[in-house]
Amino acid sequence: MQLVRERELKKRTLSSTQIIVLGFLGAILAGSLLLMIPAASARGIKTDFLTALFTATTSICVTGLVVVDTFSHWSFLGQLIILLLVQIGGFGVITIYSALMMAFKRSFSLRTRLLIQDYYNLDSIQGLIRFLIKVIKGSFLVEALGALLYCLIFIPRFGFLKGLWASVFNSVSAFCNAGMDVIGPSSLIEYQTDIPMNLITVFLIVSGGLGYVVWFDCLENIRKAARQKYGIRVFWRRLGEHTKLVINLTLFFLISGTLLILLFEWNNPETIGSLSLGNKILASFFQSVTFRTAGFATIPQESLTPSTCLLGFIYMFIGGSPVGTAGGVKTVTAFVVLLNVLTFIRNRSEPVVFGRSVSEKMINKANAIVMTNLFLTVALTALLMQCCPVPALSAAYEIFSATGTVGLSRGLTSSLNAAGRIIVMIGMYAGRIGPISMALFFSTSRSVKNEIKYSRGRFIVG
Length: 462
Prior knowledge:
Layout: H1 2-12, H2 16-35, H3 49-60, H4 70-73, H5 76-91, H6 93-103, H7 110-120, H8 128-158, H9 160-175, H10 195-210, H11 212-228, H12 232-238, H13 241-265, H14 277-290, H15 306-318, H16 331-345, E1 352-353, E2 356-357, H17 360-387, H18 392-403, H19 418-433, H20 435-441
Antiparallel strand pairs: 1-2
Helix pairs in contact: 2-3, 2-5, 2-7, 3-5, 3-19, 5-9, 8-9, 8-10, 9-10, 10-14, 11-13, 13-14, 13-15, 15-18, 16-17, 17-18, 17-19, 18-19
């Protein structure tokens, strides 16, 4: 009888995945209702539900695709609501909930600790609250620094109050990799050759996309290097293997993306063709950064060559690094899949990187993430083309941007019909919480282990 009660209790208890999925959904619905308040629009009239829902979704999912201009459609109240939703989306509803518990000095149950551990993909619950505090403090510190730097650009142009607001909004949006702004209708295109503007934005985007684990590992080793006075080589050796891998992958994608975009767009007069060499490199570098889930643009996306768009599909799909504000399947996930392929081709026993083996469980997880994301993206692209008469290239660009929570568009978002907007919202939502999480949400089984051992079958592949 006791066993039956325990089973019934387990059935009624939501899993960590279900809480995360429902938490994001609840935040989106609450944001939609707030954005429908007449005072939230610049004209003082009620915004229709679908537009409010789309805006709340793109804000919480830190994507940046918009059906109405953020700077003109929404009042200060509306923009403030959007900014709060972006901040919630960047942190995640679990982090916000935990921060509120700490603010009200509530104790964390074991279940809450396990929930935070699942959300950040951490190995253990030891030091979890300390990690959470460092995440919140570190994020606000970087956003504040970004806002101060932006003030040097926006206050002279817009005046103190508007310049300060634009600085705060852009800093939070860039760090959270949302790509939304309140400075005009053309993103950052008018700042294409402005070096400080480009570098400040890149700093914020990359900081959010590196991941908190990398942050704290680097900071801890910087402190040790300062105390023990050792050089860069020793510093690099003492970094964790995850940190080394993320830094290497980030540099690879930034450099390779810059070179390839420079090559593909060199003679394109509608993008960088008419710029000087230095400005061509700057614009290509920024595009390489923003492809990886940022959403800001200094180049008109509808003018990009098909080759650059194809490169964008790959970079948007991969995204940033784990345990950060970026989207996509994540750099380490894609690397593990590729490493496993190379290991098989080279006939080696196990994948190894920096002298450490990659577990079979991690390989299976990486394969599942890549395949489910790829299937979802292709399926939604086909649905969008079926529901809206749009070119295949633009449709694919829109969906890869949505599922990667990037926010770049070839001018398609605002022209979508109701069905098209719903499809894009599904892509943004699934991309933010992960298609794997969506599948687990609807899973009724509490156990993933096989209770029965089967004899090995004879199958042929390849």
